[in-house]
Amino acid sequence: MMRCLRLLFGCCLCLISGAQNAYRRVAIPEQAYFAEAFDGALDRNWVLSKAVKDEQLQLLQYNGQWVIEDSREQRLQGNRGLVLKSPGKHHAISAYLRNVYHFTDKPLCLQYEVFFQKVVDCGGAYIKLLAHSDDLRLSQFSDATPYSIMFGPDKCGSSHKIHFIFRRRDPVTGTYEEKHARQPEIDLTDYFTDRRPHLYTLNVYPDNTFEILVDLTLINKGSLLKDMDSPVTSPYETQEHADRRLDKPFTMSPVSAVGFELLSLTGDVMFDNILVSDSLEVARRWTEDTWGQRKTPGLIEKLLIATVKRPWLWGVYVVTVGLPIILFISLMWPDKRFGPPDQDYYYKKTDEPQADRHQSREEPVTRDEVVNQTAVEADSRAVRRVVRNTDVTS
């Protein structure tokens, strides 16, 4: 029994050690407009907002702390990310793209990872693509800074959302308006509560369609023209106005920076592996190099990973899984009485009395013993013949 327990425990250790991968640094693709894996320190490309909420007192509007830290994820040891640290405070940080992205004839591929390392009560984790302009100053990044796209998860109370909002200038009125994609119909709760990183991907195409994926699974898609809370083309406007719009909402304001401008009541929200590209192939390779380092766990690996934070589950596993296996092995263990007939420990079932001493086949047999055994058998046969003859005569 103890041998079985040790064997089972050893197998479990092998499985759980295999479930943990060592993080490998990734190469930044030259074709990307922006790519950040946060493998090193927070460099000067990232600018903390110095916007103030009181000019006279010089009180900062964004006083939340940002740091680069190791992830608490058990499956990818050594991975680092950008962490929003201060609960209940405003945070803002941004970085310029390598080149200005223009919405022309190529798609926009935006993706990044979010890891709620603690149970999130209320807070956003969305990213903004800041609109290009000559007066854009990242040190003054705030909620008033114009953006072209806002995308990502957001929770407040029992409401769980994945935002996709694009902002564009209406050619008819000349004003800027925000268009919100309708929320997917699936339940999004697990993405905020399961304490695992998730990959959020937005693809927007020149034909005015979009796709939203989480962990490479499509959860929402639609048209920029129709599948918005307020459609781009109003059914009440004149045909002249509709023609002036040219029905091309994809042609938004160019983008020159990415940024996070957030308020979260929960700290330790991690962001990682940000990509802005106009190539689906570049995005695919980047995903393989980053998110692909996490192998999808099977059922057994998921059960073993769960014991890291809940050690008491070991007892449940032993009772529900280990004990039946041990009992099965114990019952099926080979019994010497029923071994192969050509082995020493084989005993043929018989009603005749067995000798107390079993002679080893390897023990030498003398000539006298053979003669004596032959004589005994001959006498036994003679006695049986006499008995039979007596029975016949009588």
UniProtKB/TrEMBL annotation:
Disulfide bonds: 122-156
Predominant location: endoplasmic reticulum
Region (Disordered): 344-373
Cellular component aspect of the GO annotation: endoplasmic reticulum membrane
Basic and acidic residues bias spans: 344-370
Gene Ontology BP annotations: ERAD pathway; protein folding
Keywords, sorted A to Z: Chaperone, Disulfide bond, Endoplasmic reticulum, Membrane, Signal, Transmembrane, Transmembrane helix
Transmembrane segments: 312-333
Signal peptide range: 1-19
PROSITE patterns in the cross-refs: CALRETICULIN_2
Pfam families cross-referenced by the UniProt entry: Calreticulin
Domain of life: Eukaryota
Annotated compartments: Endoplasmic reticulum
GO molecular function: calcium ion binding; unfolded protein binding
Stated family: Belongs to the calreticulin family.
Full protein name: Calnexin
Lineage, highest ranks first: Eukaryota, Metazoa, Chordata, Craniata, Vertebrata
